[in-house]
Amino acid sequence: HTETHTHTHTDSLLPRAVNVDLQTDATLQVDISDALSERDKVKFTVHTKSTLPNFKQNEFSVVRQHEEFIWLHDSFVENEDYAGYIIPPAPPRPDFDASREKLQKLGEGEGSMTKEEFTKMKQELEAEYLAIFKKTVAMHEVFLCRVAAHPVLRKDLNFHVFLEYNQDLSVRGKNKKEKLEDFFKNVVKSADGVLVAGVKDVDDFFEHEKTFLLEYHNRVKDASAKSDRMIRSHKSKKLFYNLQDAVASWELMQLMFFLKVSELFEKTRKIEARVAADEDLKLADLLKYYLRESQAAKDLLYRRSRSLVDYENANKALDKARAKNRDVLQAETSQQLCCHKFEKISESAKQELIDFKTRRVAAFRKNLVELAELELKHAKGNLQLLQSCLGVLKGNT
Amino acid sequence: LLTDKSGPASLPAEDISANSNGPKQDSLFDDDPEDLFAEATEEVSLDSPEREVLLSDGPSPAITPITPPTSVITPKTCSDPFLLTLYSCFLKIEEEEGGDSFDMHISVSDPEKVGDGMNAYMAYKVTTKTSMSLFKTDEFSVKRRFSDFLGLHSKLASKYLHIGYIVPPAPEKSIVGMTKVKVGKEDQSSNEFVEKRRSALERYLMRTVKHPILLKDPDVLQFLESSELPRAVSTQALSSAGLLRMVNKAADAVNKMTIKMNESDAWFEEKQQHFENLDVQLRKLHASVESLVCHRKELSVNTAQFAKSAAMLGNSEDHTALSRALSQLAEVEEKIDQLHQDQANADFYLFSELLGDYVRLITAVKGVFDHRMKTWQKWQDSQLLLQKKREAEAKLQFTNKPDKLQQAKDEIKELEGKVQQGERDFEQISKTIRKEVSRFEKERVKDFKMIIIKYLESLVQTQQQLIKYWDAFLPEAKAIS
C-alpha cells in the first residue's frame, strides 16, 4: 500500500508548546525524525540526543510502533512511585481506516470518472491521508517530549530502554482477558473515584483544584466535540464545489468571464480548505490534547484522594489497635507508610498541578495567537484573490 | 409596431387557449388567493378548467420549492447597508453599465396591509423615475396590489405572446404565504414572504419596461401612471402555471404533427434545443445553490454551538487572562456564525431568485416558439382549404348553379386574402422572434454577469469582516501571560 516517509512538523502542533516555555534541558532531547506508514502499522523513528552517562552513545535512533508507546505509558501508570505525578497522556492510536477506505473507493471508481476528476480527487485524498499521518506522528512525539521534560520521569529505566534498545521490545497488545480486566479496573476505579471525591479536603489548594478540574474537564470535552463538528462542516467541499461546477458548465456565456470565475472559485476553495485544516490543528487538536491532560490531572487528584482515604483509614486502624492494645506496631508502621505516601503525593501533586496550569496557559496562548494569525493570513489571501478577479471582470464588462 | 390596443385583428385572443374550451373565461380573474373572498359580486366560473390551475398553491411546476432563509433581513430590520443594496440590485445593473441609455427606474416599496382577515391584501407603492418624454413627469408613484400586476401581465400576454414577443412572466402567487399575512401573523417568515414578493414585483416591472415594445403599451403606461386602476377582471388570466400547462399541451400537439419546414427553420430548431438545454442547466444550478445554502447554514449552526461551548470553557478557566481570551474567542465565533448566515442569505437571494426568474422566462420563450408553430399551421391550413375550395369551384363550373358558383368565387377570394395574411403573419412572427431571442440572450448574459459580480462583492465583504474580527482578537490572545 502507500508508503510515505515524512519529517514531522510538530512545530505547528500544540503540544510542542510544552517545551517552549520549559527549560529545554540539553542533556536529553527526543524527537521523531522519521515515520513510515505501512498497511496496518506505523513505524516511528525515535531519535535521541543525550549527554547523560547511562546511554552508550550521545546520539542514536530506534524504530518504535504505537503499542510500544502504550506499553511505556502503562508502565508509568502502574508504577506506585509515580503516583504523585501527572502521567503524560498516551498518544491516540493511529487511525487511517477511514482515509484508506476512501482511497480504495476512489481506486474502484476510477473507470467512472474523467482523468482530471480522478487526479484531483486522488490529490485531495492523499493530502487528507498525509495530514492525518502528520498529526499522529506529532501526537507520539509530544508524548515523548513530555516525558523527557519531566524531572523524574525522564530518569525512568523503561523510558531509557524504550529510547535505546534497538530491538523489538516484544510488547504485545493486550489480549482479551487483559482487556476485560482493564475494563473492570476502570469500572471499579470510577466508582471508587466517586466515593473518594466526596471526601472534603482540608487543604484549600486541592479542594479548589478538584472543583476546577472537574468542571474544566467537562467543558473541554464539550468544546472539543463542538469544535470538531464545526471544522468538519467547514471542510465540507459542498460550500463551494457545486456552484463552481455549475458555473463551469455554461457554454454559451462569454467564455473568458466564466473561466476567470471558475478559476477564482477553485483557488478560494483551496484557501478555505487550508483554513479548516489550520483550525483543526490549532483549535481542535489543542482542545483534544487538553482533554487528555485534564483527565491525567484528574487521575492524579484521584490517587491523592485515595491515599488520603487510606491514610485516614490507617489512622482509625491505629486508634483501634491502641485501644485494644493488639498489633500496635503493625498498625503504626502501616499508618506511617500511608502518611508518608500521602505527604509525598501531595507535595509533588501541588507542583504538578501548578506546572499543568503554566503549560496549559502557554499552549493556549501559542495556539490562539497562531490561529488568529493564520485566519488573518488566509482571509487576506482570499480578499486579494477576490478583489483582483473583480477588477478584471469589471474591466471586461 | 402595434398601435391597436387590443392587438392585431388577425389573430384573436381565443387562440391562445390550447384547450378549446370556447372563448374567454372572463370572470375568472381570480388567480390571486388574496382576492378569493374579497368581492361577492365577482363571478367565478366553477366549471372552468383553468380554475384548478389558477387556484393551485405554491410555485409553478417549473421550479422546485425554495425554503426561505431563517434570519430576518428585510429592508426595515436590516441595518447592514450592503445587504440592503443586494435586494434592490437585480435590475438596477443598467445604471452601472456604461453606454446604456435606458433611463428609467422603477421601485416597488412600502408594503402596506389593507383591510382585515381574509379580505386583506398588501398594497405596494410603485415609483417611477425617468427622464423619458413618454411620461408627463420625472417622478411619480401609484399604489398597486398583487392582482394588479397579474392583470397587467395577463393583458400583455394576450396581446403580445402570440405574435412572438417574450412577455416577462409575473411573480408567483402563494396561498400559504399570503394567508399568513392576512391572518396577521407578524413573524419572520411572513416578513420574508412580503420582502421576496416585493423584490420579485420590482424585477418584473423593470424587465417589462426594458422591453422597447412593452414600454410603450398603453396598459403599461396606465399601470405606472394612473392613480385608479380598474380591477383586473376582463381578460384571460394566465398565471405562470397556467402558461406552462398550456405550453406543454401545445408542445405535445406540435410534436405529434409531422411538419416539414424549410431550411431557415434550422435556426429556430437550434434555438429551441438551446433553450431546452439552458432550462436543464438552470435547474441544475438552482439545485446546487440550494444545497450550498443548506451546507452554509449547517456550518453556521455548528459555529454557534462551538461559540457557546468556548464561552463556557472560558468561564471555567481560572487563569484570568486566558479566561478573557477564550470569552473573546467565543464572541468572534459568534460573529462569524452571523457572517455565515448572512452569506447564506446572500447566496440564496442573489442566485435563487434570479434562477427562478429565468426558469419562468424560458417558459415564456418556449411559448413564443410554439405560437410560431401555430401560426405556421394556421397558414398551411388556410392554404389547404383554399386548394379544396378551388377544386370545388372548378367542379361547379360544369353545373348550372350560378349562385353557388358566385358563392364559391367569393369564398375563394376571402381565403386567398387569408392565405396571404397567414404568410405575412408567419414571416412577421419569425422576424420578431429572432429579434426577441437576440435581445433575451444579451439581457441574460448581462444579468448573470452582474449577479456573479454582486456575489463576489459579497464574498469580499465577508472576508473584510473576518479580517476585522481576527485583527481585534489577536492582541487579546497575545495578552495572555
Element layout with pairings:
The complex is a heterodimer of chains A (397) and B (481).
Chain A: H1 17-21, E1 28-37, E2 42-50, E3 59-64, H2 66-78, H3 97-108, H4 115-149, H5 157-164, H6 176-197, H7 204-235, H8 241-248, H9 255-324, H10 328-396
Chain B: H1 49-55, H2 81-87, H3 93-96, E1 104-114, E2 121-130, E3 139-145, H4 146-160, H5 175-183, H6 188-210, H7 212-215, H8 218-225, H9 240-256, H10 265-316, H11 320-396, H12 402-478
Antiparallel strand pairs in B: 1-2, 2-3
Helix pairs in contact in B: 5-6, 9-11, 10-11, 11-12
The sequence of SSEs of chain B as H and E is HHHEEEHHHHHHHHH
Tell me the number of helical segments of chain A per DSSP (H or I, 4 or more residues long).
10
Output the number of helix runs of chain B.
Answer: 12
Rg from Cα of chain B: 28 Å
The percentage helix of chain A is 55-70%
Our measurement of the CA-to-CA distance between the termini of chain B, rounded to an integer number of angstroms, reads 80 Å
Counting helices, strands and paired strands, the structural category of chain A is mainly alpha
| Rg calculated over all Cα atoms of chain A | 27 Å
Query: Quick one: which chains have the greatest interface?
Result: A-B, 56 and 57 residues
For the largest sheet of chain B, list the strands in their spatial order.
1-2-3
* Low-confidence parts of chain B: 1-99, 234-238
Strand content of chain A: 5-15%
Mean pLDDT of chain A: 83
Coarse shape of chain A? elongated
Helix content percent band of chain B: 55-70%
Main beta-sheet strand count, sense and barrel state of chain B: 3 strands, antiparallel
